[in-house]
Amino acid sequence: MIINTELENKGNLFPGKINSFSQDVDKIYFKTENGVILQVTILRGSVIRFRYATDNNFEKDFSYAISEDGVRGYSILEVEEETTCYKIITRRIIIQVDKLDLKKTIYDREGNIICKDDWGFHWEQSYEYGGNIVKMSKSAPQGECYYGLGDKPMHLNLKGKRVENWATDQYAYGKDQDPLYKSVPFYIGMYEERAYGIFFDNTFKTFFDFCHERRNVTSFWAHGGEMNYYFFFGPQMQDVITRYTDLTGKPELPPLWALGYHQCKWSYYPESKVKEVTSKFRELRIPCDGIYLDIDYMDGFRCFTWNKDYFPDPKRMVAELAEDGFKTIAIIDPGIKIDDDYWVYKEAMENDYFCKRADGPYMRGKVWPGECFFPDFTNPKVREWWSGLFKEIIDEIGVKGIWNDMNEPAVMEVPTKTFPDDVRHSYDGNHCSHRKAHNIYGTQMARATYEGVKKYAYPKRPFIITRSAYSGAQRFTSSWTGDNIATWEHLWIANIQAQRMSMSGMSFTGSDIGGFAEHPTGELYARWIQLGVFHPFCRTHSSGDHGNQEPWTFGEEVVDVTRKYVELRYQLLPYLYTMFWEYAAYGVPMLKSLVLYDQYDTQTHYRTDEFIFGNQILVCPIQEPNSKGRRMYIPRGHWYNYWTREYVSGGLEKWVDADLDIIPMFIKEGAVIPKYPIQQYIGEKTIEQLQLEVYFKLGEKEVSKVFEDAQDGYDYMKGRYSLRTFSFTGKENEVIIQQHKDGTFITEYDTIKLEFIGLPFTVKEIEIDNVIVDLKNIEFNSEKNTIVIPKDFTELHIVG
What whole-number percentage of the chain has pLDDT above 70? Predict the structure, then answer.
């Protein structure tokens, strides 16, 4: 916010000259003559917190976003005073603080400017609400690019955009519409191949302006609270994201079934309809693990109840679905119906757990049950109570996952679509209005839900999905991108949103495949399922108001396409599970936009369609009707067309054929891609053999990993996992694969089947762990270049 074009101009206020400096271990304080304090905290050599106070007074330090498990510590911290500035020196960066006006310039250790204040910190008095409207403006050199900020349905590169963070129920939203359901105030800036990140940890309504108001200025501001932000230095984009994710928290592994295909509709009822849908999946041999129950399973939309006319014996039904491989996921909304005969309502009233207006009445609003009150999930006692409500549905009935919806929070029949500003919240003892609590309400609901499901699903892992989220929600829940539309434009939006969410620390995200509102053509559904199987969360979901959207409703051709790609997802589950392990362990994004994959190639900076699934699979959806192919950008390096096995060079645009049953898909040379046999659901089959597709590469080593465990439970946290690392080295007449294994988990299979793709020679000799084997004594197919060997080999040589 620079020149007050959208707010009444009460006058910007600025820091004065620095008149004192002090240091307390990792915290450095600069105080100015007009009562501004800058607190600089060194969390790591590349992670710095900047926090400002006015009137010589900080607010109580509290954040829902910051994880207690993040990495802390540094090796170098020096502060030097010079004539015009102070310099804070870490191992990675140098921060220069100007004595005259408190402006900062951040350099790398080579002296390159990474991030520089323009007007820096400034503020306005908020005469309407009290406190400050806090602002920060930074110089934006020509050519700087900006990414991140969660579920924004707009171009991946945010240069020239102004966006707002205020979690909002936006049914059937459009391209460039803002705000949406999530508030993730974290962005990545990149200039001259060096990346940094900024996380503005402020839960009030926040705004980000990326050179929209002024071409050379980027700014962010909030309608209350403190100017409190974290700076992350890369210079690699992926390092920026992993450090942000480390700070705000990484998820635990989900159960493997949560990464399968899921089917949902508003709504499947009665029980006979649910059984009809699930039976059809098995009849048509389309793999599926999750079936969802939307609000109509409830008695009058009362949460934690069942409509006994539709579902007379839910425990029996859920058990029968489980026998057929289906895990049942049920929706739970925050609105609790005002009903003296409703046990959840009575408990909350007796304990005073509902949100109240400023003058004392409960917050009353209309949602699906009619008039409702709403729990204050920012109160730890309410979260504990809420978590206990899941005992029956999870422990006794056997539901496997919970879906939190309407938790922006959404309220019907009011212009704002949500609570009024004067609603009061506990905020874990930091009492506040809804202006501060709004953006984290959904995350705290998901947190309470997670704690309940985890308690009653134990020793299995919980599965939660939420519509609304704030930074840090990834610790508790997956997410989806809300009420999209069955249009080709929304197919493009879904692709963008999944990439952006991965960039924003929330990889476990997907879209409503086929579109929630309106009805797709068969062709659009087929193209969407092709994209959706490459998103971490994979679910078809649709509104009951717009026709049926099960795969078979579009005819046999679309059924065949759906089956082909859902089967492919199930084959790639060990690859996908390994992606998730890397995300959970290190914060590595599961999807990588091309700019994230290769930021040094300027051609990637404005690409939106292509992305890397994991580390080694390039995907580019078809996003226009009647297409027989498309032009796409192949990143630098060499790749194999997955379908044709054609070997192609990257760094250029290329036409790729893609009839209705093909999505352009390429594998990085040197990759070792693990596969499982096709299953109709997780656990249907014992994995008797791991399959590895090995793509030849001449030259330097390529490393691939395969993470496996019991597919559920917590033994993996005690070392009971199997992590196989394959190092591939290709020569003109030889291939060498070295395997290193970590963990104590023993896989069910004893052998690995390797298929070599692109091998430039005829195999004449095979050596396993320094022993040459007779080709007649092993399973070797010279035509297909496949070989079956013991799973725990250390070194394999294939010689021509």
Answer: 99
Whether the per-residue pLDDT at 451 is higher than 60: the answer is yes
292-318 pLDDT, tens digit per residue, is 999 999 999 999 999 999 999 999 999
Mean pLDDT of 706-724: 98
Which residues are CB-contacts of 200 (< 8 A; sequence separation ≥ 6)? 136, 185, 186, 206, 208, 220, 222, 228, 229
For 265-316, the DSSP string reads -BT--SHHHHHHHHHHHHHHT----EEEE-GGGSBTTBTT---TTT-S-HHH
Residues 6+ apart with CB under 8 A from 701: 670, 727, 728, 729
The secondary structure of residue 471, as a DSSP letter, is T
- On the 0-12 / 13-18 / 19+ scale of CB atoms within 10 A, 356 is middle
| Dihedral sign, Cα of residue 170, residue 172, residue 176, residue 181 | positive
Rounded to an integer, what distance in angstroms lies between the CA atom of residue 560 and that of residue 269?
Answer: 26
Q: Note whether 501 and 150 are within 8 A (CB).
A: yes
**Region 42-50 average pLDDT:** 98
Calculate the alpha carbon distances from 450 to 296, 462, 478, 626 in Å: 22, 7, 10, 43
Q: Give the pLDDT confidence of 586-618 residue by residue, as tens digits.
A: 999 999 999 999 999 999 999 999 999 999 999
∠ CA 12-14-19, nearest 5°, is 160
Could you count the other beta carbons within 10 Å of the beta carbon of residue 458?
13
**Burial letters for 319-331: b for 16+ Cβ neighbours within 10 Å, e otherwise?**
eebeebbbbbbbb
Residue 326 is classified by DSSP as P
**CA dihedral of 676, 681, 682, 688, whole degrees rounded to 10:** -40
CB 307 within 8 A of CB 269: yes
Other Cβ atoms closer than 10 A to 414: 12
- Mapped onto helix, strand or coil, the DSSP state of residue 388 is helix
- Which tokens hold the place of 488? 């080709």
- Is 438 a residue whose pLDDT tops 90? yes
Q: Taking all residues of the chain, what is their mean pLDDT, rounded to a whole number?
A: 97
* Alpha-carbon span 233 to 92, nearest angstrom: 8
Q: Phi/psi zone of residue 33: left (φ > 0), alpha (ψ -120 to 50 degrees), beta?
A: alpha
Show which residues are catalytic.
Answer: 405, 408, 483
pLDDT at 6: 44
CA separation for the pair 445, 5 (Å, rounded): 36
> Positive or negative CA dihedral for 504, 505, 507, 508?
negative
Indicate whether 776 pLDDT > 90.
no
- What is the model's pTM? 0.97
Torsion angle of C-alpha atoms 380, 338, 449, 420, degrees rounded to 10? -70
Whose tokens are 């399968």? That residue is 260
CA 16, CA 496: separation in Å to the nearest integer?
A: 43
